[in-house]
From TrEMBL:
Protein name: Purple acid phosphatase
Annotated Calcineurin-like phosphoesterase domain residues: 42-251
UniProt-listed InterPro entries: Acid_PPase (IPR024927), Calcineurin-like_PHP (IPR004843), Metallo-depent_PP-like (IPR029052), Metallophosphoesterase_PAP (IPR051558)
Gene Ontology terms for molecular function: acid phosphatase activity; metal ion binding
Signal peptide positions on this chain: 1-26
Record-level GO cellular component terms: extracellular region
One Pfam short name: Metallophos
Catalytic activity reported: a phosphate monoester + H2O = an alcohol + phosphate
EC number(s) given by UniProt: 3.1.3.2
Family the UniProt entry places it in: Belongs to the metallophosphoesterase superfamily. Purple acid phosphatase family.
Reported cofactor(s): Fe cation
Keywords: Glycoprotein, Hydrolase, Iron, Metal-binding, Secreted, Signal, Zinc
Organism: Corymbia citriodora subsp. variegata
UniProt: Fe cation 2 binding residues: 81, 119, 213, 248
Length: 330
């Protein structure tokens, strides 16, 4: 009797709380990953990779293993386009093993992989990539459309960027996209933008890093994603985001902003690269561009983040740091 009454009271309270809190509170799924006991955190970022080891995917993977051990990573972030050409056909698609489980085999890479989806993933069965069945096949796999990862000193905001891009809807060509769970599109996008904005506003983490598949600033083959510049960038600027990290262009890039503190990193060198077409960019913003394969490592404390871009041989291509105390970089 008491138990039941207690429960009802609790439910009533929860409902009341939900009603009052929901307009201002983000609906995004929240995950936690503790920083190391000394308060530091390190991880790798790779994108545009799943090609059954081809196009140097295996070479990049083995160097990720070496560097992952050296910087003692806590996890790996994937910026999407996890499985080429057309995502997964279902939870039993052998591509999951051939392009992921059997490729990233180094001991240092046996950590959680936090994945977003790319446009190629949307050409397959999206729900398969989001399914807990994949986690049973390989416990590293963590994939949601959009979510927040709280890692104490830093909060990551993973944003599902594919539904923003008009041409996938208006001019899909021969490609079929799996928009189940996205349509009606307008509602999906406006809820997502609201959720990202309120999650950023609620965050008290020292660092805020936004991860998406599509570019905001890029001099690569695809260049800027105008829909994100219009809709997402103002939210990042209004909420003191430190970094926006993406894939989509198959290259490595570091671009700063003349009008804000946000730095833009493309880590899309997980496999096929060498597109050869590079657009011009304001020299005062373009810090580094590499057309080939590779990946990013980040090693951070509450006040300082050290970033390194590596090539397919694990050679350092570009390194810099961001300091919270002195403001800015090498
Ligand atoms: C693999 O990497 C090497 C070194 O960067 C490069 O010369 C070669 O073209 C790459 N292979 C492919 C298929 O991209
Ligand atoms: C992280 O960066 C600091 C500062 O550059 C460096 O001294 C340290 O060795 C790095 N740690 C790892 C694990 O790479």
């Amino acid at each position: 009797m008491f138990e039941g009454g207690h429960r009802l009271l609790f439910l009533g309270g929860l409902l009341l709380w939900l009603c009052m809190a929901s307009p201002a509170t983000s609906e995004l799924q929240r995950l936690q990953h503790r920083a190391k006991p000394d308060g530091t955190l390190s991880f790798l970022v790779v994108g545009d990779w799943g090609r059954e080891g081809n196009y140097n995917q295996s070479e990049v993977a083995s160097q990720m293993g070496v560097i992952g051990e050296k910087v003692d990573i806590d996890f790996v972030i994937s910026t999407g386009d996890n499985f080429y050409e057309d995502g997964l056909t279902g939870v039993d698609d052998p591509a999951f093993s051939k392009s992921f489980a059997d490729i990233y085999t180094a001991p240092s890479l046996q950590k959680p992989w936090y994945n977003v989806l790319g446009n190629h993933d949307y050409r397959g069965d999206v729900e398969a990539q989001l399914s807990p069945v994949l986690k049973e096949k390989d416990s590293r796999w963590v994939c949601f459309r959009s979510f927040v990862l709280d890692a104490e000193i830093v909060e990551f905001f993973f944003v599902d960027t594919t539904p923003f891009v008009d041409k996938y809807f208006t001019d899909p060509g021969e490609h079929k996209y799996d928009w189940k769970g996205v349509e009606p599109r307008e509602e999906y996008l406006s809820n997502l933008l609201k959720d990202v904005d309120s999650a950023l506003k609620d965050s008290s983490a020292k660092w805020k890093i936004v991860v998406g598949h599509h570019t905001i600033k890029s001099a690569g083959h695809h260049g800027v994603t105008v829909e994100l510049v219009e809709l997402l960038l103002p939210i990042l600027q209004a909420n003191d985001v430190d970094l926006y990290v993406n894939g989509h262009d198959h290259c490595l890039e570091h671009i700063t902003s003349t009008d804000s503190e946000i730095q833009f990193i493309t880590s899309g060198g997980g496999s096929k690269a060498w597109r050869g077409d590079i657009k011009s960019w304001k020299p005062e913003e373009m810090k580094f561009y590499y057309d080939g394969q590779g990946f990013l490592s980040m090693n951070m404390t509450g006040d300082r983040a050290d970033l390194i871009l590596y090539d397919v041989f694990g050679q350092v291509l570009h390194k810099w740091f961001i300091s919270k105390q002195l403001h800015d970089t090498a």
